[in-house]
Amino acid sequence: MMIAEFVQERDLTLADVMEMTRVEGDAWKLSHVRRVLQLIELIGEGMVYDHTAVTIATYLHDWGAYPRFQQPGVEHALRSRQVAETLILPRMGLPDTAVAIILETIAYHDYRDFRPVQSTEALLLREADFLDFLGIIGLVREYGRGPKEIESACRAVLKRRELIQDRFTLPIARQMAATRLARLEQCLAWLQEESFDFV
Ligand SMILES: [Fe+2]
Ligand SMILES: [Fe+2]
């Protein structure tokens, strides 16, 4: 189903949002969303938060980077927020409190954004999204992104690591980050060894 058909419907459900994420974002981006949702479950254990709001926010958080919605010069988190606010959330029949949480969660998720967040949901998405940039998954994601060039992918991984590694506040996220950082370190060392530094 295309976006135009979705937005003409009076009521959008979470299932519609999931399907739109699959169609517009492709399998690569949908799998990122699924991993992030799994991470939120893990790092949010024992915390009180709106599961529906954070789930909707997670599906929508990168839409601003999808070809259909991206706008040159507009940072993707802000663009995702705009799309959610104007096209999607008004048709979901959510309470105003949930809408406010979803918009904040989307707008503040990016690792380059150092502004403090207000809601637990925003903190959960932010730290889960950080984790998906670390460890083996972070490394292979970078190579999946292209271009076909090892050195630039390594540089990008290291740059992200520098910006993310000290930003975790949630106890379980901190533990998971420590594990992923150690694995990343080991993996990069092995890569250096096996490539004789010719990358
Ligand atoms: Fe993002
Ligand atoms: Fe993301």
Quick gist of this model?
With about 200 residues, this protein is mainly alpha-helical. It contains 9 helices and no strands. It is globular and about 60 Å long.
What is the strand and helix layout of this fold?
Blueprint: H1 3-8, H2 14-43, H3 51-60, H4 76-88, H5 96-107, H6 120-131, H7 135-145, H8 150-164, H9 171-195
Bound molecules: fe (ii) ion (2 copies).
Give the total of beta strands: 0
Helical stretch count?
Answer: 9
Number of domains: 2
Largest sheet: none
Give the end-to-end Cα distance, rounded to a whole number of Å. Answer: 43 Å
Report low-confidence residues grouped into runs of 5 or more.
Answer: none
Calculate Rg over CA atoms. 18 Å
Which percent range fits the helix content? Answer: 55-70%
Oligomeric state as shown:
single chain
Shape: globular
Q: Which kinds of small molecule does this entry bind, naming each only once?
A: fe (ii) ion
